[in-house]
Amino acid sequence: MKIVRIVDAQSLPFWQRPLTLLFLIAMALPVAFSTWSALLNNFVIEVADFDGSDIGWLHTIREIPGFFAIGVIALIMFMREQVLGLVALAMLGVATGITAYFPSMGGILTITMLSSIGFHYFETVNQSLQLQWIDIKRAPQMLGWLTAAGSGATLIAYLLIVGTWETYNLSYNFVYLAAGGFTTVVAVFAFFAYPQFESPHPQLKTFVLRKRYWLYYALQFMSGARRQIFVVFAGFMMVELFGLEVHEVTKLYLINLVVNIIFAPLMGRLVTLFGERRALLFEYAGLVVVFLAYGGVYYFGWGVVMAATLYVIDHIFFALALALKTYFQKIADPQDIAPTAAVSFTINHIAAVFLPAALGYLWLSSPMAVFVLAAMMASVSFALALLIPRHPVPGYETRLQTPLVRVAAAKALF
């Protein structure tokens, strides 16, 4: 396999460059994962008769591989990150494709575990490669465009579902096979069509847990806990409370994708202009309001239009999560990026392993309480984000550091 240094990659044809590969896999991943997500709630309710507790357990199982994402560190001792990422992407595609062949509780949980291993290991490696291959000055904008590219690919998939689901009376099996097959084919193509790119800074292949990254770790933990409530219960609410069918849920996702295509690059620009601290504060404050409003949907009966509007606004705020990546990129030692990506994914999924199942039982008695808890988590994230410096650099990771450290960091910046 040909190895090409990143600095020499500009001499390659445009379609074979590292950034092009990042865009290709950014579009391949969500076709499988987002299609699985769009059909999931209807599939498990109609086929396996899931209730709130069952869906909680499903997502707990799904998040276990994320908790063990630290295993990436061991795997990259024996294979290159790029190869591991493409193998994991193919694994996600294959598992997604065969989902409907296992319509029982046990079968769904097993296939979900396999697809989740592929998803989380790919995402761990993908985040690492993005931060290694993209110049730090261009990172916020490029991460925004990568998010928009993924949304664009998913938009096409969802348009096909909405336009053909009822017209051609499609089955879950056909749609899962088509989406998973596409992702698998892209992964195989990328493996053979691209050279292996050599990052400018060799990555440490050992466990890395540094005291000076503590704020990043804390924000990752809260992000994982908070996101689970949205991922598990916001969509489930749309089906359980309002009885939305597959094509209706997919239409809602289509709106989210269009909004993401428009706003993700703008969010990247926002981070560039105002910095990570202000961007994350804006995100977390907005999420507090959104989660409290979700609770109001149950308590006051505001209806499906309000719930759908909140769902879209939620996605806009989540697009600002790229600021957390660029914050770490600015404070990290270059050789720490790969091992810390694995560690941060594990930290991000600590709460995800037990929260969905635990909150599934709370959901049975008080759905509103679940969303109030999410608002409290967003408030904690807001308090932590206040500690991010306006211009974070290695040695000046938090605003709690002494004035002398701040002065030295400012000199290093300029």
At the fourth CATH level, what is the homologous superfamily?
Answer: MFS general substrate transporter like domains
Rg computed from alpha carbons, rounded to a whole number of angstroms: 21 Å
Classification by helices and strands: mainly alpha
What would you call the shape? globular
* Unreliable parts: none
- Give the strand tally: 2
Order of SSEs? EHHHHHHHEHHHHHHHH
Q: In what order do the strands lie side by side in the largest sheet?
A: 1-2
At the first level of CATH, the class is Mainly Alpha
CATH topology grouping: Growth Hormone, Chain: A
The termini sit apart by 41 Å
**Assembly form of the protein:** single chain
**Helical residues, percent:** over 70%
How can the largest sheet be summarized? Answer: 2 strands, parallel
User: How many H/I helical runs?
Assistant: 15
Which percent range describes the beta-strand content?
Answer: under 5%
The count of domains is: 1
Average pLDDT across residues? 86
Describe the structure.
- The protein is mostly helical.
- It has a single domain, classed as Growth Hormone, Chain: A (Up-down Bundle).
- It is about 75% helix and about 0% strand.
- The protein is built from 15 helices and two strands.
- The protein has a two-stranded parallel ribbon.
- α1 runs parallel beside α4 (about 80-95), α4 runs antiparallel to α5 (about 105-135) and α8 (about 215-240) runs parallel beside α13.
- The longest helix has about 55 residues, at about 245-300.
- The protein starts with a strand and ends with a helix.
- The model has no long low-confidence stretch (mean pLDDT about 85).
